[in-house]
Write a structure and sequence with these properties.
Number of strands: 8
Strand order of the largest sheet: 2-1-3-4
CATH class of one domain: Alpha Beta
Organism: Anoxybacterium hadale
Protein name: Zinc ABC transporter substrate-binding protein
Distance between the termini: 37 Å
Strand content: 5-15%
Oligomer: single chain
Radius of gyration: 21 Å
């Protein structure tokens, strides 16, 4: 996570080491009692995919609480113990997961299966489009560490610039968009990867995992077909976000163009007047009827654009996380994406 305090992780890991907490204590006793494997995930998409495939054969834990913001999430010592004691650990694998890699490097992973979702699909670099507010270079976070990648300076220069090096004259590594699950076809590939991981750690139930994954894949393919038909018949193919844009894979999959205030992984919340004016002009010029915000957003930017244009403000679910009430009411990746079908129709027709 871009704003995650690396020193905090280090302190937690030192405390963890001194407690002598090792694999085989509380969690293993629980597993031996329930005969279930333990699956730990960082955020909602892998959590939901895992529970669709594992059924009742696994105890599945999501570290990020419903309603929580992943960009400011800090694991507790209990979270580290959960990771070390699990059979299957699922995380996204992008820059925002630097904290995960610090933990994995510091615990015994020999008896667990670890899967990064970004390793199961083809990834694309995060995109900075015209009018988009870029992440500012926070010099005050010189205490920031990027797990050894101290030469990352993507926050300070536009992607479109011809700068190819950093202040250390080293090549800047690309930053990849992490929201891989927003494309249902990517979700199919992620499902396959999780199914294979479950079969590896729990071969006794492999047949059930394969059957569940096949049934779930059918549902994902049906959702994909619905989105394709919706976009194919649309009168416009452009969407506007007064917010971050975590839908790059979704837009690429269905041939949508977009304008947004921030890229998907930005930690910025206050756009410049120029960014708001740019998006407002786009809505007016292209007669776009809807301006989107994402879930858990305060919606201030979208409302500002709406007031200036008359466009309706609607929420498009990236499924990155969900509210506590949605979680308790049993919302899933599929149910949230199905809501997106109706919402997107208002914007494109």
């Amino acid at each position: 996570m871009k704003r995650f305090a690396a020193a905090g992780v280090a302190v937690l890991l030192v405390l963890f080491a001194f407690t002598g907490c090792g694999r085989g204590t509380e969690q293993n006793n629980q597993n031996s009692d329930t005969d279930k494997i333990s699956v730990v995930t960082t955020i909602f998409p892998p959590y939901d995919f895992a529970r669709q495939i594992a059924g009742d054969n696994a105890d599945i834990t999501m570290l990020l609480p419903p309603g929580g913001e992943s960009h400011s999430f800090e694991p507790t010592p209990q979270d580290i113990i959960k990771i070390q004691n699990c059979d299957l650990f699922l995380y996204i694998g992008g820059e925002n997961d630097q904290w995960v890699r610090k933990i994995l490097d510091s615990v015994d992973t020999s008896n667990m299966k670890v899967i990064a979702l970004m390793d199961t699909v083809s990834v694309v670099e995060e995109e900075i489009k015209e009018g988009m507010e870029e992440e500012h270079d926070h010099d005050e976070d010189s205490g920031h560490e990027h797990d050894g990648d101290s030469d990352h300076e993507h926050d300070s220069e536009p992607a479109a610039s011809d700068q190819t090096g950093t202040k250390d004259n080293e090549t800047e590594e690309p930053e990849y968009d992490e929201h891989v699950w927003t494309s249902p076809q990517n979700a199919v590939q992620i499902t396959k990867g999780i199914m294979e991981g479950l079969c590896e750690v729990d071969p006794d139930n492999a047949e059930e995992y394969r059957a569940n994954a096949a049934a779930y894949t059918d549902q994902l393919n049906k959702l994909d077909g619905t989105f394709k038909a919706l976009v194919d018949g649309a009168v416009r193919k452009t969407i506007v976000f007064g917010d971050r844009f975590p839908f790059r894979y979704f837009a690429d999959e269905y041939g949508l163009d977009y304008w947004a205030a921030f890229p998907g992984c930005s930690t910025e919340t206050e756009p410049s007047a120029a960014t708001v004016a740019f998006l407002t002009d786009k809505v007016k010029e292209e007669k776009i009827p809807v301006v989107f915000k994402i879930e858990l957003s305060n919606g201030n930017i979208a409302r500002s654009i709406s007031e200036a244009t008359g466009a309706k403000v609607l929420t498009l679910h990236s499924c990155h996380n969900l509210t506590k009430s949605d979680f308790e009411n049993g919302e899933t990746y599929l149910s949230l994406m199905e809501k997106n079908v109706d919402t997107l129709k208002e914007a494109l027709y």
